[in-house]
Structure formats: C-alpha cells, structure tokens
Amino acid sequence: MPPLSNRITRLFNINYPIIQAGMVWASGWRLASAVSNAGALGLIGSGSMRPDMLREHIQKCKAATAHTFGVNIPLLYPDIEKHIQIVTEEKVPVVFTSAGNPAAWTGVLKDNGIIVVHVVSSSKFAQKAEAAGCDAVVAEGFEAGGHNGREETASMVLIPAVCNAVTIPVIAAGGMATGRQMLAAMVLGAEGVQMGSRFVASEEASSHIHFKNAVVHATEGDTMLLMKKLAPVRLLKNSFFEQVQEAENGGAARDTLKELLGKGRARRGMFEGDLQEGELEIGQVSALIRDILPAASIVKNIYREFEEAVANPLKKI
After folding, report:
1. Does residue 124 belong to any structural domain of this protein?
2. Most buried among 12, 80, 149, 207, using CB within 10 Å?
3. 181 and 232 assigned to the same domain
4. Residue 213 lies in a domain
5. Same domain, 99 and 248
6. Do 181 and 279 fall within a single domain?
C-alpha cells in the first residue's frame, strides 16, 4: 500500500498520518527531527523549555530535517508571549496548542503563516477551536498520559463525537500506540493519530532511561488520573503517586496539593529518572509498549501494522 493521502497528510505535507506528541521532558529536537525524517510529523514539546531553550531546539531541528516539524505550546505557559514570538520569528511551520483558549493566539499564529492545531477533550471545545480558525483538532481521550480533560471521555466515544461536531480534520489521541489502533481511530472518523507514550519509549526521546524502562514494564492498571482539584494528570503509580492519592482521599485542599506537588516534580521523574519521588506522566497504552526503539522504526512498524490491519481487519493479533 502506498503512503496514505488524506487531509492530514496534505495539511502537513507528510507521508503518514502519524503525529508524535510534543511531550514535556521527552520531545526535544532529536526526537522531533527523527520522526519527521521518517515521514510522520515530529513535535517539539515547549512546555518544559525556557524561551532560549525553545529557540535552540527549533534551530537544531531545522538543521536536522528538511521535512515539516512543529512545536506544541501549552497556552497556560507563564512566558506564552515569548514562546509565540519565538515560533513566529523562527518561522515554525506548524504549532499545536493545548491547555487554554485557542481564540487567544490562533489568529496571531495564522497571520504569520503557521498551521494551527488545538488539542481538545470535548466536542464543545472542538467547535470553539474551529470557530477560532484552527486548521485541525486533536481529540484526546481520557486514556492519554499527562494533563487530561476533566470530562473523562474515553477515545472510543470522544473521537466520533468530535468528528460529528466539526468539519475540520480530526486527529485521534489517547490510547494510541499501534497500527490497529490507528485503523480503529480512522474507522471512527479521524484522519490521523497523535501518539505520545509510544514515542517516550524511543531512543531519541530526551526522557531518562529509567523512565523509559518503567514505561515498557508497565501493565494494565499501572496508571491513574489524579490531582483533579488542580489539573487532572495521568501518572504511573509510585511513591509520589501514593502520597497524592492519600492526600486526595483525605479531602486535601488545592493549596495542600500544590505544596505536595512542589516545583520540578515532572523534571525529577521523567528527565532525571527518580522513579519514586518524581512525577511520571504516561498513558494507559503503556501497557502495550514492550520495547525502546529508534523513532524511525516506530513509525515504520505502526504503518506496517496499519496496512496489515486494513488488509485483514478481523485477524486476531
């Protein structure tokens, strides 16, 4: 089967409708460029980067790939104006926004010739993203790692609901790591998939090897959504997780949870490799990930599985 052509592949000028999520402490220029060089869309995760570091990663990514890449920008980032300025000055072709109102910056980005995609957790917010002028949306289900929607809508429900609610292309996320899941998402109406956890377990991801190994050893039930009073986040269970869960079960107030979270928990866990006291953000689909591979091999394997599933969708895995 030749590379798939649809609105997502044409929008980003890529061979495969696979997007590597812009994850904090994992998605630097090495991972983004490797994914883009493999024919998919790589994203730099700016949420864990200072402005000067973001500019450095963008410039290194430009030098490492001639293909389309993008930057994920959480709109709640404290220095959001600086990040927007940097992506416009560096002429980044694609920006994925999340965790905020897309109306705030979509117009500015599009005025600078940037393709804009917004991450949503409901049909209502998908419609707001379309009204704001976004070129596509990511429908991210409850299964996803990291910060999550408060609605707790799972991907099998969210994807078709969002596809029915908007006319712009929909990218499915949350619980996506294989080619068969990619086909399932497309049967539900999506035109592409965004994968985070699968690319955490890649050689080029900047996350610590201890965290990568924890991901590939995870099983069903090893992640759970916590900190709903602050911002819901899916975590791998560890000592820090147990402390938060105990506090929440005891009715802890927001300020208590903030104090427990402190500063640098995510860096400590995902980047520095503290598997007990660090914050380990990962999706439920980690239960299906069993190896750490080069990003190009991951893209190739996903699309091969997708082709096999298209040819024989009823074959048991």
Report:
1. yes
2. 207
3. no
4. no
5. no
6. no
The C-alpha torsion from 190 through 17 and 214 to 235, rounded to 10°, is -40
Q: What is the DSSP annotation of 69-121?
A: EEEEEETT-TTHHHHHHHHHHTT-SEEEEESS-GGGTHHHHHHTT-EEEEEES
C-alpha distances out from residue 24 to 32, 76, 146, 205, Å: 13, 14, 9, 10
> What percent of the chain is predicted at pLDDT more than 90?
82
Q: How many domains does the chain have?
A: 2
Is 80 exceeded by the pLDDT of residue 1? no
State which residues form the domain around 268.
218-284
Tokens of 235: 């975590």
pLDDT single digits (tens) 207-256: 999 999 999 999 999 999 888 888 888 999 999 999 989 988 888 888 88
Classify the C-alpha dihedral 232-176-198-220 as positive or negative: positive
Q: Give the global pTM.
A: 0.95
Centre a 10 Å sphere on the Cβ of residue 107 and count the other Cβ atoms it contains: 13
**Which DSSP symbol is given to 293?**
B
Number of residues written out for the chain: 317
* 98 and 223, same domain (yes or no): no
Q: Is 260 helix (H, G, I), strand (E, B) or coil?
A: helix
Per the structure block, which two tokens stand in for 225?
A: 């959504």
- Residue 259: per-residue pLDDT: 82
**Does residue 257 sit in the same domain as residue 294?**
no
- In this predicted model, what pLDDT tens digit does every residue of 257-271 receive, in sequence order? 888 877 788 999 999
Task: Give 6-50 pLDDT, tens digit per residue.
Answer: 999 999 999 999 999 999 999 999 999 999 999 999 999 998 899
Asked if 242 contacts 310 with a C-beta cutoff of 8 angstroms, the reply is no
